[in-house]
Amino acid sequence: MFLLAMMVLGLSGCERLTELANQAKLNGRAIGAACRHSGRALEDCFQRNVRVSKADIFAGWKEMNEYMTKNKLDVITPPPDQPPKGPVTSVEIGGGTEPADEAASETSSTPVTEKPAAATTAAGA
């Protein structure tokens, strides 16, 4: 019985892993399609998205190219890129960027001192 329960738990984890892999593939295709729709070269798209599979980006770019050719759609030029406000410490897929000075202040080990509860209520009254 225990072995059966462990197998069921293990197989449910496999489904989640497959789902995450498919999501990454779909994200790559969406990035490629967006690059083609905005008129960016395929090589520029690869350089901008180094963590994404080149095959997935190419598949999305190619699909959008065929779609745009078939429907005679024009390229939508994106707004110009804005330079980053400071050095970037990390870039996460699906997340934003953190400037280096903010990331350093968040990870500093400065102890936090709190006022006693009695002092706060007396000052507020």
Strand tally: 2
- Counted by DSSP, the helix tally is 5
Order of helices and strands: HHHEEHH
Class computed from helices, strands and strand pairing: mainly alpha
Kindly estimate the percentage of residues that lie in beta strands according to DSSP.
Answer: 5-15%
Descriptive terms for the model:
125 residues; mainly alpha; two-stranded antiparallel sheet; 5 helices
Detailed description of the structure:
The chain is mainly alpha-helical. The protein has a domain at 14-77. Helix content is 61%, strand content 6%. It contains five helices and two strands, in the order H-H-H-E-E-H-H. It has helices at 2-37, 42-48, 54-71, 100-106, 117-124; strands at 88-91, 97-99. A hairpin with a 5-residue loop joins strand 1 and strand 2 (97-99). The longest helix has 36 residues, at 2-37. The relative contact order is 0.09. The model has no long low-confidence stretch (mean pLDDT 76). Residues 77-86 have a biased composition (Pro residues). Residues 76-125 are annotated as: Disordered.
